[in-house]
């Protein structure tokens, strides 16, 4: 804790080190005399919102440097674009993840000082022990998109939506060399997940709260009033691993319509929900919803699909008797998205694709390189 700094939360070598003695003496006095020098690591829109809140709170920092990914064929990272617009210095990390372990923070962060602070927010890289140890343990802060210890891992927002979690939140956590999101929590904020929340909308909400939370923690650190709470070793939720293409593959035998809609809200911004026609052609489903009306012609076979002409949607049978309404689809290797009627009119002329008037969608395995 700051103000009541606990030796049991720090590695023994830090408790013997002059850095620890200086840091503790400063915190137990009225306040740190110097504002912080901050190294901010991030990349995406979540990072941008947190960074902007930090940047506008100029009472807590003396200087800020941003470290982020270099430009790609898709352009520069949102964080770099924001930093450039604010004339904030930018240090570019190696493009390849394996090379990042050799990255050295820019000056003045080559040596630890009591007012040096490392902040990460949706950074997408794992910091090495050597990199972290350039900062005093209480000054290694990560803004994480969950109320820890729930949803530890790189994709907490997506997994909270997929799992129909009623609430989530954001935490400011001390990064440990053995776990970036397992250290003491300096502050957290809980908020409900709206029934129609998407990854994008929830990310924006969490990032705004996260930025304000970070600023509050840093102000409390300057005044010597910040406190932290150790996390329990076990998390109440599964590890929020990175989203892969396999997460977009649908299984109508095991997934209810509501689960598929939640999955779309969680990962639709980065992965299109995927199934296959009986001919083996991959099919991406766009903007699915739980079907409010099920045509009488639709059987109970999971994966069975018919066209609902009055509502102009494709209706797919899912597990548990539920059904999915799909207004648009896209076939593999086709650029254009087809409206439901246009797609169905292309299916009808080929009777080999139909069983009792239904198209039966199937589940195949993605190739390893997909």
**How many structural domains?**
2
The average pLDDT score comes to 90
Low-confidence stretches: 1-32
Order of helices and strands: HHEHEHEEHEHEEHHEEEEEEEEHEE
CATH class of the largest domain equals: Alpha Beta
Largest sheet: 7 strands, mixed
> Could you name the CATH topology of the largest domain?
Rossmann fold
Number of helices: 9
Oligomer description: single chain
CATH superfamily of the largest domain, by name, is Formyl transferase, N-terminal domain
Radius of gyration, whole Å: 25 Å
Let me know the number of strands: 17
Q: Characterize the overall form.
A: elongated
What's the quick description here?
By secondary structure, the protein is of the alpha+beta class. The protein is built from 9 helices and 17 strands.
Task: Kindly list the characteristics that best describe this protein.
disordered N terminus; seven-stranded mixed sheet; 370 residues; Methionyl-tRNA Fmet Formyltransferase, Chain A, domain 2; six-stranded antiparallel sheet; elongated; 24% helix; 2 domains; 9 helices; alpha+beta; Rossmann fold
